[in-house]
Design a protein that fits this description.
It is a single chain. The protein is mainly alpha-helical. 73% of the residues lie in helices and 0% in strands. The chain has eight helices and no strands. The chain has helices spanning 2-18, 23-58, 68-83, 87-94, 103-113, 127-146, 153-163, 166-183. Helix 4 (87-94) crosses helix 6 (127-146), helix 6 runs antiparallel to helix 7 and helix 6 crosses helix 8. The longest helix is centred in the N-terminal third of the chain and has 36 residues, at 23-58. It is elongated, with a radius of gyration of 26 Å. The chain starts with a helix and ends in a 5-residue tail after the last helix.
Length: 188
């Protein structure tokens, strides 16, 4: 908002001067514009200091074990995990018709993400909570894909309760992705 005030004040001053308006009005408008510009510069300086501080904190996380492939797999596999609702879907996941999901693969990716614990992305909670969420889903889906023909309705119901809904899965996925984006500059 302040950024827009400076040009508006200058435009007003120029208009008043061009139309023969009072010098005092033009002078006041110019003073206001200069004040707004100073305020914008101070805010920019403050934001730069905050960004520098955040970058220093981001360097505290050793993301060297996390690869772009891990992040891509995580994004796809979590989407698949959130959609499992029926025995037929479990069979499709188990036979890798839907994706290349295996509980071992997901567990390995989640294990690498443990370094993100305590390092949230902007506006997000601790990614450790999201990692725990997906670990629970992975454990349950892994048990079902190990014997897809023997999956019971009780297992599906328990899994659905753990997923909660697609929005919850996306929220947890977002918390991890933002933490990676914020803390793993090696993946940029």
């Amino acid at each position: 908002m302040r950024i827009l005030l400076a040009p508006l004040a200058v435009l007003t001053a120029l208009t008043l001067t061009a139309c023969g308006g009072a010098k005092d009005a033009a002078s006041s408008a110019i003073d206001a514009a200069q004040g707004a510009a100073s305020s914008v510069a101070a805010n920019a300086s403050s934001l730069a200091a905050e960004a520098s501080s955040a970058a220093a904190q981001a360097g505290d996380v050793d993301c060297s074990a996390i690869t772009k492939e891990d992040v891509a797999s995580f994004s796809v596999l979590t989407q698949v995990m959130a959609q499992v609702r029926t025995k037929d879907t479990v069979k499709a996941v188990a036979s890798q018709v839907i994706s290349n999901y295996t509980p071992e693969k997901m567990s390995a990716v989640l294990g690498k993400f443990q370094v993100l614990a305590g390092h949230p992305g902007p506006g997000q909670g601790d990614p450790a909570d999201a990692i725990a969420y997906f670990t629970t889903l992975n454990d349950q889906l892994g048990a079902m894909t190990a014997a897809p023909d023997a999956v019971t309705q009780a297992q599906l119901d328990a899994y659905a309760a753990a997923v909660v809904d697609v929005g919850t899965a996306l929220k947890n996925q977002f918390a991890i992705n933002l933490s990676i984006s914020e803390n793993c500059t090696n993946l940029g």
